[in-house]
Design goal:
The structure holds two protein chains of two kinds. Chain A is mainly α. Chain A folds into two domains: about 15-65, no CATH class; about 70-305, MetI-like fold (Orthogonal Bundle). Chain A has 13 helices and two strands, in the order H-H-E-E-H-H-H-H-H-H-H-H-H-H-H. Chain A has a two-stranded antiparallel ribbon with strand order 1-2. In chain A, helix 3 (about 65-75) packs across helix 13, helix 4 packs across helix 12 (about 260-270) and helix 8 packs across helix 10 (about 210-240). The termini of chain A are far apart. In chain A, about 25% of the residues are buried. In chain B, helix 3 crosses helix 4 (about 105-120), helix 3 runs parallel beside helix 5 and helix 4 packs across helix 5 (about 135-145). The radius of gyration of chain B is 24 Å and the shape is elongated. In chain B, the strands form four sheets. In chain B, strands 6-7-8-3-9-10 form a six-stranded mixed beta sheet, with helices on both faces. Chain B is α+β, with helices and mostly antiparallel strands. In chain B, a hairpin with a 5-residue loop joins strand 12 and strand 13 (about 260). Chain B folds into two domains: about 5-230, 3-Layer(aba) Sandwich (Rossmann fold), CATH 3.40.50; about 240-345, OB fold (Dihydrolipoamide Acetyltransferase, E2P) (Beta Barrel). Chain B has helices spanning about 40-50, 70-75, 90-100, 105-120, 135-145, 165-180, 195-200, 215-220, 225-230, and strands spanning about 5-10, 15-25, 30-35, 55-60, 65, 75-80, 155, 185-190, 200-205, 210-215, 240-245, 250, 260, 270-275, 280-285, 290-300, 305-310, 315-320, 330-335, 340-345. The chains are: A mainly alpha, B alpha+beta. Chains A and B meet through helix 9 and helix 10 of A and helix 2 and helix 3 of B.
């Protein structure tokens, strides 16, 4: 009899059918939204990339296969776009990360007019990238731009940032770095504020200099946040497009010399007649795979670093 | 190293954290800064470390004035309450860090770190990260890191407060052992009187930023300077019975009890006082009784019983022999040691 009592206790209590499904009912409205606006388009792009000569309005296509991928991989604009995109990521990410770490560290100190500096650095985050891009277009102006004016003050000859093919990429990177700073600084600053001040006191009692504290304590302890910003920023840098658009009024560089992957995708159905939806989708799928691999590598490096 | 503190004062705006503090700490002593939280003991410690600047007064290490010296030049080792071990470094790297700053060559650094690790018994964990260590082990690493640069003075801020009760007992013996082996002058801060009593050579008892008494632990216990000191030390706490002295006898305020004791002679007549009795001073009277008490309840403690009694309307605690019958009135005799009379308002000691 007694044993029976214990056995009953061990049995899993029966949950009513309604109780079991209740959570899913609550999830349903959001799940419907995600399915329609995220999951369906995502898979549709993948299907689309296999449909050759696809016409969006009629939904007709000539055949299924890897034709779009073959064409895209051989397209010199796509190859140029891939090269530019990689160059952009490899230039912008390290530079913006380094500058952000320095600015965030300075902002983390108690300095006068702190709210002013904080607002100033976070302002780009709440302004429209296109509007700011237009402002940069004028700042980069050969004759009247403030950039060339400042360079003139230190005795450097004016540079044709936007109108000379050789300077186009530099101009894009300068604007790209600037655009990336606020978000990175916000994240790093929150990371810095999570570091206990006690570590600094401990190091100072032992006689560590500010520079040593920065490199041996601040940076290593900030590393998880630095990695996070690098991963997130790399993903957005791979999708470089809205930085490009306002600077040359919708052209990829002054002589179509600054194709990026996303600009190439855009070009496939805006710049061509008839629009090449299949090829655009194929390029998008390739970009997705590239970003996926790149991010995996970054995470692997981070794991190596942590051990 | 001998430490002399003269008229040390620290103000945070209007708040006075440490007030006109004088003390001399002899070479090689283990000194405990004891007091309730917010009494300024940690501020004291950080002023000695140099991370807090003194408002006025002087600190001397031997004959050297260090009041305005930078922390790194003072040669102090500091152990923080939560250890502040660098989480991204291994145990060995943590211990080596102070030497790295002093630009000690790498081979010597590691040799010295290993030597000190052996002393604090963490040499088996050198390649672990702090997060992989238990609280007691982290504590040992923190002490090793503070000791490795051979400091003139070792400072510990509430070193045991983050450990569980059992480990606390082990670690306080360990701190004592390490201090005895290195013979480094050590000051540690705590609010736990038991901890302070058990390991320190000298206790500096503080309250509201002012020194209350400084002496060997037993001396303070046996001979408290004022009511605060008597109340702060001892578990169970000292019993206080409030009343006045009239005709050479102590009367409680409500007149419910009378205590006859020779100490009453030292008190001005009619003064409001607290008659303080340590629990161990209480015994059953054989012939001469000091007062009558009603035994309410007892707790078995093994050797004796911890007994709750009432003297008039005041509840007191004392130790009585096993098997003393409860709910009966007894004649109580007070031993010579552990009976004091303090002024009820000022805490000043009369007897």
């Amino acid at each position: 009899m007694k044993l029976d009592m214990f056995k009953k206790k061990d049995k899993e209590p029966k949950v009513k059918f309604t109780k079991k499904w209740e959570p899913f009912v609550f999830l349903l409205p959001f799940a419907i939204g995600v399915t329609i606006f995220t999951i369906y388009p995502l898979f549709n792009v993948i299907f689309m990339s296999f449909k050759e000569n696809f016409v969006l309005l009629t939904g007709k296509y000539s055949s299924l296969g890897f034709g779009n991928f073959e064409h895209v991989m051989q397209d010199r604009y796509f190859i140029q776009g891939m090269q530019n995109t990689f160059k952009y990521v490899l230039v912008v990410i390290p530079i913006s990360t380094c500058i952000s770490i320095i600015i965030a560290t300075l902002l983390n100190n108690k300095i006068k007019f702190m709210p002013f500096f904080q607002t100033a650095y976070f302002l780009p985050m709440v302004t429209s990238a296109t509007a700011v891009g237009l402002a940069w277009k004028y700042m980069f102006h050969y004759q009247y731009g403030v950039v060339n004016y400042l360079l003139g003050l230190v005795g450097i000859n004016p540079i044709a940032w936007l109108t000379d093919v050789s300077s186009n990429f530099t101009a894009l990177c300068v604007y790209g770095v600037w655009n990336m700073l606020p978000f990175t600084i916000v994240l790093l600053l929150s990371g810095l504020q999570n570091i206990d001040k006690l570590y600094y006191t401990a190091a100072r009692v032992d006689g560590a200099s500010t520079l040593r504290i920065f490199f041996r304590i601040t940076v290593p302890m900030l590393l998880p946040t630095i990695f996070l910003t690098m991963v997130v920023n790399s993903i957005s840098a791979f999708k470089v497009f809205h930085e490009l658009f306002p600077l040359w009024s919708g052209q990829p560089g002054i002589a179509y010399n600054l194709f990026t992957v996303v600009y190439y995708i855009f070009y496939q159905f805006r710049g061509l007649t008839p629009p090449q939806y299949g090829r655009a989708a194929a390029a998008a799928v390739i970009l997705f795979i590239v970003i996926f691999i790149f991010t995996r590598i970054q995470i692997l490096i981070q794991k190596k670093f942590n051990n | 190293m001998k430490i002399t503190i003269e008229g040390l004062t620290k103000k945070f705006g209007e708040v006075v954290a440490v007030k006109d503090f004088d003390a001399v700490i002899e070479k090689g002593q283990l000194v405990c800064l004891l007091g309730p939280s917010g009494c300024g003991k940690s501020t004291m410690l950080y002023m000695l470390a140099g991370t807090e600047a003194a408002t006025s007064g002087k600190i001397y290490f031997d004959d050297e004035d260090v009041t305005y010296m930078a922390p790194e030049d003072r040669g102090v080792g500091l152990v923080f309450q939560n250890y502040a071990l660098y989480p991204h470094m291994t145990v060995l790297q943590n211990i080596c860090f102070p030497l790295e700053i002093q630009k000690v060559p790498k081979a010597e650094r590691i040799a010295r770190a290993k030597e000190i690790a052996k002393l604090v018994q963490i040499d088996d964990y050198l390649h672990r990260k702090p997060s992989q260590l238990s609280g007691g082990q982290q504590q040992r690493v923190a002490i090793a890191r503070a000791l490795v640069k051979k400091p003139r003075l070792l400072l510990l801020d509430e070193p045991l407060s983050n450990l569980d009760a059992r480990l606390r007992l082990v670690m306080r013996e360990e701190i004592r052992r390490i201090q005895q082996e290195t013979k480094v002058t050590t000051i540690f801060v705590t609010h736990d009187q038991e901890e302070a009593m058990s390991i320190s050579d000298v206790i500096l008892l503080m309250k509201d930023g002012e020194e209350q008494q400084s002496d060997a632990p037993q001396a303070i216990y046996d001979n408290p300077a004022n009511a605060f000191t008597a109340n702060f030390l001892g578990v169970p706490a000292i019993n206080n019975i409030y009343g006045i002295v009239k005709d050479g006898k102590f009367h409680t305020h409500d007149g419910s009890a009378v205590i006859e004791h020779e100490a009453c002679k030292k008190v001005p007549e009619g003064k409001k006082v607290s008659f303080a009795i340590r629990p161990e001073a209480i015994e059953l009277a054989k012939d001469k009784a000091n007062f009558k008490a009603y035994l309410v309840h007892t707790y078995a403690m093994g050797k004796e019983e911890l007994s709750y009694m009432t003297v008039g309307t005041t509840e007191i605690r004392g130790y009585l022999p096993n098997g003393t019958e409860i709910e009966k009135e007894y004649n109580i005799h007070l031993r010579n040691k552990g009976v004091f009379i303090f002024d009820e308002e000022t805490g000043e000691r009369y007897a």
